[in-house]
Amino acid sequence: MSGFGREAALRRLASEQFDLLVIGGGITGCGVAREAALRGLRVALVEALDFASGTSSRSTRLIHGGLRYLRQGEVRLVREAVRERELLLRTAPHLVRPLQFLFPVYRGDPDALLLVRLGIGLYERLAGLPADARHLLLTPEDVHERMPALRSEGLRGGAAYVDALTDDARLTLAVAQSAAAEGAAVANYCRVLHLIGADEGTVRGAEVRDEESGAVFAVQAARTLIAAGPWADRLRDAKAPLLRLTKGVHLVLRQEDLPLPSACVLRGPDGRLMFAVPDGPVTYIGTTDTDAESPDDDEITPQDADYVLQAARRAFPGSAITEGAVIGAWAGVRPLVRPKPGAAPSEVSRDYRLSFAADGTVYVAGGKLTAFRAMASRIVDRLFAATRGAQAEQCSRRPLPGGDQSPPTGDEWRRLARTVGVPEELLSRALVPYGSALPSVLTDLPSSRSQPPQQRLVRMQLRYAAREEMALHLTDVLQRRTGFLRFSARKTRREIAALGAEMAQLQGWSEARERAEIEAVESQWRRMFAWRDGDFA
Question: Which of 51, 121, 144, 498 could form a disulfide with 25 if both were Cys (CB 3.0 to 4.6 A apart)?
């Protein structure tokens, strides 16, 4: 991706004067950097760890409006999100795809069948969908025919509707790449040490440390926006917190243990809405929504796991949903706008709020993955009012990197699979997320066919991530550039040493660094299953 080189970005960060410094490389920070760069502003973005290493790689991976927010009266938020969903389906078809959902309704549910159907109807009208693309009303017999594994006792009926699925980490990466392609200086593993000028009352940028080399330098900027997600309050010199932090946990099963023809809405033991989402060889279930003590509180407790498993067992009573069937898991902390006292975690708004400090620093709290572009547009409108207008809006709707061409047809995939010696299903699943960059990615596919196809694909993605996607650590590749650690945990663990050796060769690591990188992945693997009382097998 043009402009997405870390060394060049570091030189620019240390030497140029910027209009805007964005601190935070999640979807919000990357979205604002992209929007500002598209408008011709001089933009810098620094992230202390890796892009999307916090909340933005730990969502339910859905691009949706949030049906339940209608019940909370947040019609504007839902309208914006469902329309942004439709835009992302056009501008990032390699990363966002339609996904059908089944919403069953049971006797005693908090939302009656009529209310669910009316809510979905409003949801689709807000998206501007034509009548022939809207939801289907289902009888109990229809629901059971579509998803036989669902509990039939007390079933009143339901509805089928369409939302969308994404790879949240790769979507964030694409937005960062787009910002860089438009001229922003973007770098990960650059930690802000302090804000320049804060003691004098006017912030003029930040002093930053390159976590790889240890070099410290100043980034000079007229305005500074802090989009640090759940860490925002730690960076603010204010008594009243902006955020209410909540934790969301997801568990992953093999597709054969919970084979679903579509995604399904289910309810937790307390009645709150959750999802079971089929994604290729796996089905994942989530999410919880409980208060978190700190932004680092992403541990999965036995209680968290039990909540998710109880919901799944109740919804699918005949399926093999046991602790031992869980092959992966993840948890994330959401930076929600702090509400009035007494609100339940699931009732807290997913909208965003800007906070302006006396020294000129701007903090952003809240926001939704789906609506990142619209939120970023409004934020840049607010900070740089002279740049707003129809032309800025038109630029903002350009395709994301990789989204500028149609994906290969079935015949093209079959021909390509024969040419490279990889089964079509494996090849397309690995390459679709790269979109029009597919030819460049394929140049990293090992030519020797003596290795199993899956190993060749993993090595291909690792090489490309190190070469083109600013992946500096083994965890960057296995957790965010790919889903190997999350969705193929046992297989990945067997390959960690070999992948570490390959990454070491690409990056020029010492033996000590290679061992440390492998141990970091092992540590993440153990943390994933710590809730099973040490049962990591």
Answer: 51
Closest among 463, 483, 498, 495 to 528, alpha carbons compared: 483
**Phi and psi (nearest 5°) for 399?**
-60, 145
Which neighbouring-strand residues pair with 247? Answer: 290, 333
pTM score: 0.96
- DSSP tag of 248: E
- Least Cα distance to 293 among 337, 245, 256, 336 occurs for 245
Q: What interhelical angle do 489-507 and 511-528 show, nearest 10?
A: 160
- How, if at all, do strands 136-138 and 155-166 pair? antiparallel
**Which single residue is written with the structure tokens 């089905």?**
283
Contact 479, 492 (CB under 8 A): no
Encode 39-69: b = buried (16+ Cβ within 10 Å), e = exposed: bebbbbbbbbbbbbbbbbbbbbbbbbbbbbb
Q: Which amino acid is at 330?
A: W
The CATH number of the domain covering residues in 244-337: 3.30.9.10
Q: Report pLDDT digits (tens) over 46-76.
A: 999 999 999 999 999 999 988 777 777 788 8
Considering the domain 6-56+169-242+349-396 in this protein, what is its CATH number? Answer: 3.50.50.60
CA–CA separation, 29 vs 22, rounded Å? 6
Supply φ then ψ for residue 408, to 5 degrees: -55, 150
CA distance 393 to 398: 9
* CA dihedral sign, ordered 525, 527, 532, 533: positive
Superfamily of domain 410-532: Alpha-glycerophosphate oxidase, cap domain (1.10.8.870)
Better pLDDT: 240 or 423: 423
Interatomic CA distance for residues 352 and 364, integer angstroms: 7
Q: What is the DSSP pairing of strand 352-356 with strand 273-279? A: unpaired
- Which DSSP state fits 249? E
